[in-house]
């Protein structure tokens, strides 16, 4: 069994148009847990599709600070910058939860990470 498959404990996929976000809980050798957030973007290049990925890691000691900052930042956008925008119009977008990913992310599509 490949290390990546063994270390993945939980996965949530959020599809958003040409982007897909993956929230993966992974384990270390010492049974500690951390979160990886991956944005996979699909675009056309040379007559085919290419996937570009960006990934970040959030460790357990940062969970509360990260969540608080994320909620505060999104709240600021919703209440201060865009108070009249209907964010609920996007509620019906597909969100899936699985122990295994089933799209191009899992099959290695665009496995070369490009950091910007």
Automatic annotation (TrEMBL):
One Pfam match, given by its short name, reads DUF3276
InterPro entries assigned: PUR-bd_fam (IPR006628)
Q: Which UniProt keywords apply?
A: DNA-binding
Q: Highest taxon of the source?
A: Bacteria
Composition bias, Gly residues: 107-116
Q: Where is this region: Disordered?
A: 95-116
A molecular function annotated in GO for this UniProt entry is: RNA polymerase II transcription regulatory region sequence-specific DNA binding
Q: Which Gene3D superfamilies match?
A: 3.10.450.700
Q: Which family does it belong to?
A: Belongs to the PUR DNA-binding protein family.
Protein name as catalogued = DUF3276 family protein
Q: State the organism named in the record.
A: Emticicia agri
